Backbone:
């Protein structure tokens, strides 16, 4: 049986969804994990992003921007998960994702746990911009595309976020 | 960027990198084995006709399950209370609040004789309680248990044998005690006293514990093991083979697996044990079962595993299949339930092993001879603590 592969546009951009998954799913899952704090949710949002890409790939104006689409989708899906977590649960109490939990401290060490807790206290946009710029190592332009904002916004948000994170870490001392 | 900002960035990179590296592999591409998924028309059907698909898919391929009656009560918990409810109506019948101010409940498990819950007041002082219910589901008795964990450790997963005689738990180091170190699994004889801790030479933790009825065998999954991606190779795919799909998508791992340890005798003076002696069982699903495992449990008699397979999307949708496997060779023996529209996660099961508890979107339910039955709806399904 031959599997039908999905080519994302012209031959020179003939990267399949499978290729993208093989090359980027792990990195995107790690990014989602850092944002969300638990692996299952991270895997879910990344797989959703790839499913969304598959459904929309023919409608992509520039198939070469599939990776931009994926990054944006991961961020949007992660925001949805975080919004749902803020809803009060009638029995389960406030959910504490494993990465931020006491268990994780044993794996990460106190210093890293403190950084992750401070990061979690930042506003969503500040947290995202820091992770895209300094964890995913995206340029300001790539970060702007992924977040759907202007490059100037990325620059100013980065500056504010670094200051805020620094202050939070100082409070920890 | 000034020097202070550079220091913050360095710390951020270090911490986020450490968190990210806890993921060494990703699941295979969603629903990769369903070749029909590739057809865009199916994607359109999924989006537009989900309700219609549900009715059809729910009745396809359902096997015969559930020998005895489902438990009469189940327990759901948060940090402050464990609430007991009737399984047929969801009505609350009892409540066990934390017995001391400052304590917070943690893990929850069940056996035929009651419910078991861990609690801690700080990062490294865990206590255990057993709660027995009266005939009306009210809390009849709650008692502390004598369980001595190795110094500097805390439980991160827990299971109880059906007779309530053995408590098994995965261990990690307490916060502030450095990196987690090697995998450790503890078993305590609740009836006669004494504990035994099994350790391996691998770094990481054991999770998703389940125990046979007599407490002799503990099944678990392992975390923290790095698996690298392989290069993408050929596209020629023999129908339904796992390894071929791994080749297409470049994921080296992805085959469902579970580990089983014979804990043997447990008691005062039995000493430690080697977790490395655990046996790995590869679960070999049929070609029409989608990949991706979300929970696995060993049966009470130790002869089979029940696992939830198939993709689960962030909105809860997906393709969930509850499958039974032979514990000896890992071969699929029975499909207990298929859900064509929602992903399923296996949360637990009763002492008989015949009534799995599953998370389906924002619902918690069970799978029986009459298919899926909802027990309750939750607003925050992630991290839910439930047992019956």
Residues:
């Amino acid at each position: 049986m031959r599997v039908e592969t999905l080519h994302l546009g012209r031959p020179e951009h003939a990267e399949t969804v499978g290729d993208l998954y093989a090359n980027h799913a792990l990195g995107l899952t790690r990014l989602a994990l850092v944002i969300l704090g638990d692996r299952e949710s991270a895997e879910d949002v990344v797989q959703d992003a790839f499913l969304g890409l598959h459904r929309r790939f023919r409608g992509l104006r520039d198939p070469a921007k599939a990776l931009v689409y994926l990054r944006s989708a991961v961020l949007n899906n992660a925001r949805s998960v975080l919004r749902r977590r803020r809803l009060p649960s009638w029995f389960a109490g406030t959910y504490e994702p494993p990465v931020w939990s006491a268990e994780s401290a044993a794996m990460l060490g106190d210093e890293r746990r403190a950084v992750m807790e401070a990061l979690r206290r930042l506003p969503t946009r500040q947290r995202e911009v820091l992770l895209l710029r300094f964890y995913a190592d995206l340029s300001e332009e790539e970060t702007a595309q992924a977040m759907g904002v202007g490059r100037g916004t990325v620059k100013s948000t980065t500056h504010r976020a670094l200051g805020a994170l620094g202050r939070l870490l100082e409070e920890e001392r | 960027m000034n020097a202070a900002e550079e220091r913050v960035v360095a710390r951020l990179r270090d911490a986020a990198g450490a968190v990210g590296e806890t993921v060494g592999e990703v699941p295979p591409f969603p629903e990769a084995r369903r070749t029909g998924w590739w057809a865009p028309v199916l994607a359109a059907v999924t989006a537009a006709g989900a309700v219609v698909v549900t009715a059809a898919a729910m009745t396809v391929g359902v096997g015969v399950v559930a020998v005895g009656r489902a438990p009469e009560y189940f327990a759901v918990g948060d940090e402050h209370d464990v609430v007991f409810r009737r399984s047929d109506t969801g009505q609350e019948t009892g409540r066990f609040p934390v017995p001391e101010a400052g304590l917070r409940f943690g893990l929850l498990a069940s056996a035929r004789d009651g419910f078991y819950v861990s609690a801690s007041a700080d990062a490294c002082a865990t206590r255990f309680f057993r709660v027995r219910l009266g005939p009306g589901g009210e809390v009849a008795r709650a008692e502390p248990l004598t369980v001595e964990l190795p110094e500097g450790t805390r439980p991160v997963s827990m299971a109880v044998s059906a007779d309530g005689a053995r408590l098994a738990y995965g261990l990690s180091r307490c916060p502030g005690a450095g990196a987690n170190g090697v995998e450790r699994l503890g078993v305590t004889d609740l009836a006669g006293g004494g504990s035994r801790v099994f350790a391996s030479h691998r770094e990481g933790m054991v999770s998703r514990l389940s125990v046979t009825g007599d407490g002799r065998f503990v099944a678990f999954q392992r975390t923290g093991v790095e698996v690298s991606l392989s290069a993408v190779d050929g596209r020629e795919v023999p129908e339904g083979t796992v390894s071929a799909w791994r080749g297409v998508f470049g994921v080296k791992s992805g085959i469902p697996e579970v580990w089983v340890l014979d804990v043997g005798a447990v008691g005062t003076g039995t000493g430690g044990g080697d977790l490395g002696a655990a046996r790995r069982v590869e679960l070999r699903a049929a070609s029409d079962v989608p990949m991706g495992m979300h929970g696995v449990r060993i049966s009470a008699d130790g002869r089979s595993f029940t696992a939830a397979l198939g993709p689960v999307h962030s909105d809860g949708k997906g393709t969930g299949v509850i499958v039974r496997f032979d514990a000896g060779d890992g071969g699929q023996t029975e499909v207990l339930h298929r859900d064509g529209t929602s992903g399923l996660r296996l949360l637990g099961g009763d002492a008989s092993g015949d009534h799995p508890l599953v998370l389906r979107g924002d619902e918690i339910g069970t799978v029986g001879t009459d298919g899926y039955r909802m027990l309750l709806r939750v607003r925050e399904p992630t991290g839910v603590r439930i047992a019956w």
User: Anything to note?
Assistant: Helices of chain B lie at 3-20, 40-48, 50-57, 242-249.
